[in-house]
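dude i think i finally got it to work??
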Amino acid sequence: SDSKGGNFVFVLLSSVIIEIHFKSFEFVLLIKVLKYKKMDKMHETLRDFAKHYTDYIPEIPVLQHVPSACEFFSHYVIPNKPFAISCPENHLPAVSRWKKTFYLEDKLFYMWPTTCVIPIHRPYPIVYERFMEPEIRKMQCYDILLEMERKWQRTEYYYVKQPNNLEEFSPIADDIRADVPWATEALGKGPIAANLSMGNADNFTTLHKDEYDNFFYVLRGSREFKLIPPIARFCIPSKRYKKFQWVKSKTEDEFEAKDLNEEIDFIPSEIVPETLEKNGFYRNIKSYVVKIQPGEALYIPAHWYHEYHQSDDCFTLNYWYDIKWDLKIPFFTFLSKLFEVKKPSMFKDVAVDTQTELEKSLIKDTADELFKMRTKS
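look at this
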């Protein structure tokens, strides 16, 4: 009888424990359902906000005149709005002079600018989950121009693109300018850097944003930009990568990866405007395409995501202007932090939408709760 009584008590206690567990699980499940309902509403609100934001800029305006300092500041700096300029008044002497390669060879023969070198078969910065910095060399511009003309025999590609490198190009000072006059007047100070870049079609950037205003001025060739507004900050993912640098082997004609013992947050190479637009969750994030020809310019405000591809034999001026602190900076930071509460994955399935992601998350959390209950009991 004692044995039967003991079994009865054990069964009773087990039933009570199971009932408590299920009541607890039901409560946890209810909380999670409510939480995801709220998150779904939050995501819906953010999607609507993104749509209204991009409706505000249906396309990138192309000005047929050079703006005044007042027009630039009030129409573009304050609203954080990009624009392009296409008019003869905007042309620099370099646009006509640099059409002739022999003119550049004569002007740049004795110069030794800083040159970035990357293997021709590894143009993207992310290689095997590593962020690859280019090898830095000192080369004569004359040699770089010759290498750029070797379209089929190249094993590596070269481009000159170093911060604030215009002082290295004093022989061509009369062909270009050190700042954008009306921008300097409007912002009350000159650029923090002025760069001359030259490279071939292998020279491009993946999607990124800068903390300063950018002016791009094409002198030769062409460059096509894709822009995404800063509102996308709340949904564009980034990953942390270890930094390495390409180094040409001294014994073999191959590049090796040198560990820099640093890390960097970077947008993965697979995240491109087309990916975002096909994605159910991100489809309201509109991208803009702008192609800049010789003599034309493009203003990209700080925090705008952009990438570019260019033609062979492309020469571009790039000016960086420091931005004044305003409400936009904490606002975009707030959006990105807000979305970290529950960010849909873009690394496994770029076609997933919000509801599917939430349902999967709910199922996973439900299974986790059941597993915890089982291990505890």
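The longest strand covers residues 255-266.
im so relieved honestly
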